[in-house]
Amino acid sequence: MSTLPSAPHDGSTQSATRTVHAVCTLDCPDSCGVLVTVDQLTGRATRVQGDPAHPVTRGFLCGKVAKYLDRVYAPDRLLYPMRRRAGVPKGPLAQGREAEAFERISWDEALAGITAKLAATAEEHGPESILPYSYAGTIGQLGYGSMDRRFFHRLGASQLDRTICSSAGGAALTSVYGVRLGTVPQHYAHAGLIIAWGANIHGNNIHLWPFIEQARRNGAKLIVIDPYRTRTAALADEHLAIRPGTDTLLALGLMHVLFRDGLEDREYLAASTDPAQAEALQAHALLPEHAPDAVAAVTGIAAETIVRLARAYGTSLALTGRPAVIRLNYGIQRSEYGGTAVRAVSMLPLITGSWKHLGGGLTLSTSGAFPFNGKALQMPELMEASPLGRASRVVNMSQLGAALTTLDDPPVKALFVYNSNPAAVAPNQNDVLRGMARDDLFTVVHDQFFTDTADFADYLLPAPTFLETKDVQGAYGHFFAQVSNRAIEPRGEVRNNVRLFAELAKHMGFTEACFDDVEDDLIDQALTTDHPWFAGITRERLEREGHAALNLPKNADGLSLPFSTPEWFPHGRVELFPLPAYMAATESRSAPAAEEFPLEFLPRKADNYMNSTFANHAGHQHMEARNTGVLEMHPDDAAPRKIVTGDRVEIFNRRGTIKLHAQVNRQVAPGVVAARLAWNKLSSGQAGLNRLTSENLTDIGGGATFYSTLVEVRKA
Ligand SMILES: Nc1nc2c(c(=O)[nH]1)N[C@H]1C(S)=C(S)[C@@H](COP(=O)(O)OP(=O)(O)OC[C@H]3O[C@@H](n4cnc5c(=O)[nH]c(N)nc54)[C@H](O)[C@@H]3O)O[C@H]1N2
Ligand SMILES: Nc1nc2c(c(=O)[nH]1)N[C@H]1C(S)=C(S)[C@@H](COP(=O)(O)OP(=O)(O)OC[C@H]3O[C@@H](n4cnc5c(=O)[nH]c(N)nc54)[C@H](O)[C@@H]3O)O[C@H]1N2
Ligand code: SF4
Ligand SMILES: [Mo]
Known about the structure:
The chain is an alpha/beta fold. Among the domains are: 168-364, 3-Layer(aba) Sandwich (Dimethylsulfoxide Reductase, domain 2), CATH 3.40.228; 592-715, Beta Barrel (Barwin-like endoglucanases), CATH 2.40.40. The chain is 28% helix and 17% strand. The protein has 25 helices and 25 strands. It has a six-stranded mixed β-sheet with strand order 5-4-16-15-14-6, with helices on one face. Strands 20-24-21-23-22-25 form a six-stranded mixed beta barrel. Helix 13 packs across helix 14 (303-320). The site of one ligand MGD has 34 residues, from strand 15 and strand 20. It comes from Granulicella sibirica. Residues 17-76 form the 4Fe-4S Mo/W bis-MGD-type domain. GO terms for molecular function: iron-sulfur cluster binding; metal ion binding; molybdopterin cofactor binding; oxidoreductase activity. Belongs to the prokaryotic molybdopterin-containing oxidoreductase family. Keywords: Iron, Iron-sulfur, Metal-binding.
């Protein structure tokens, strides 16, 4: 374990408090720099604030993390290792009563018990019968994936394909551009038109907002394309309530008008791609099925609006002197053909050449800009030293239910969950819970709280908040690398992911030196690369300065403009093939399944929680109260079902039923209903939204399809 580092913003040692530079490790594009005030005498954190020196954080935190100390010091934090009491069946426990199902044990007992069981399982069923399950409880490089991967690689456990969030969009963006990166967030201030496309900026990416406001003060317009009237939509100049899953067609409709009206930048398009591909795209876009009337009929957006949007997009630079920019986010790729949708939308700035201008282009994720040495951190070559002697099988995390209930050869016999709450967040919850309840499944859960998943644990291990551990981090919404210093001593007997897996390795008898690495070693390894974008960025520098800008290539004007010049294209050019074509999802209003289940369900994220994180805190619940336990539906759908606001309603499909209270309003258009994610055990009947979602995968990237879900609704 590293010692408490000297903080870059250390106050005088004489003073009663000191300030430590940390990073918010939650799964959010903003990766905020956080200044933690710590009382020198008690060692207790007394305040968290946004780092005013960080160019994107700019001194403020979101409402969720402003209350982070409520989480760090919550009386119900998990602080000690625990083991399920003999005879207590696995399954949902009432909140506040969970501890009764477990007994406190020592770390030695926990480590010995877990490794003995894992070793026996590997011996009897083969190591691939062990499945690690983790996602983004922390997106710090170390916490997200370092020692844990080494441990499971060496063990020969199944590998997890981490697809639940962004793999469709990531693979799609990479298939076009060769890399995941996009417009610099600060440059949004220079845009003349901003399109938020499947992006709830004000709810999920609040640090982009001030730059958008700056652009709007200079006359820029903000247009939101989202089937739900988000906070962002309510604050925008215009909200286009697109029908879910039809974004590919809208993008093609915009291309149609751009080419038809001669608004394309021929030179730029020709320079960035193969001319034959550019011609093929133009011919494809100009097909009659992509004309505004045809597109309007499917997307629900009026033909004249499509024409107006395309013209505004194509003429922004000419008319305002400022380019158009698209904040594309992951909303559009959580549907069956979401990969194609991302490919289609991401081609728009290539057609208009808006990449060339300050404030133009598109952002989906900037994560590909950070050349962290993932191979050094995760050491996949350790799989060869495992009893398997080869790469182990890969299990898609978006099909956990199927993995636990149907996978064979070998079946999953041990599940090790950390950084995630799959009982609440994984799709097809019925199968997930049925699988987790299996008597013959051994389950370990490492978390900060008694989550829904913890209710199924054989062993429960206490995990740190980001104040209690050290890490290094990039971002998926900006271009600054940061070190998060440990601000406070770990509470109770909390151990971080690095230390947990290093100790498990020791108890397993793994003798490789890599299991001796501590945080500082791992940070050094993560930053060890020849890649020029990390030149000069070292642990010492990040510890001293808090954050450092990547050394991105500059264009002739000295600006970092992704894709402004050919040197930005990793393959020398972009790839437009296969040309994006619209397909209706099997769970959408245009599909046969809609006869029985006619409503498109959006099981969305809560503005005041982070996926299922924070759902258990009174302060956060208070902020989210208006939307809790609520199904939002349009009057046109409520009336024929004789439903009025406040009615208890059943939302159901073949996979299950949940109960919520109807809120009849115009946040959604006819045909769409929406609700928000929380913990199952805090939901009516302990049934979370994911009872209704499927394990169908996206067309590209094997992602989850939460937003392709058909339901019917009736009065309970
Ligand atoms: N407050 C808050 N912030 C968060 C999170 C949170 O839970 N709460 N989660 C974090 C995580 S894990 C992530 S990945 C990011 C995600 O941030 P976003 O990428 O913004 O993801 P979502 O909120 O899933 O989707 C964005 C919007 O897409 C809309 N949408 C759904 N289907 C469609 C469609 O077919 N077409 C279009 N055009 N729009 C559609 C949704 O209604 C939603 O408002 O946010 C992070 N930030
Ligand atoms: N219906 C529906 N389902 C969804 C989504 C949706 O929009 N709608 N969104 C999907 C998306 S985009 C995502 S990213 C996933 C998110 O799914 P998850 O990544 O599972 O996210 P959380 O629910 O926030 O759970 C993270 C857990 O990690 C724990 N944790 C935090 N830090 C640490 C640590 O250092 N160590 C350990 N061991 N644990 C830690 C937290 O306490 C928390 O319980 O959910 C997906 N599921
Ligand atoms: S959740 Fe996002 S916006 Fe909030 S503090 Fe963390 S990084 Fe910043
Ligand atoms: Mo996510």
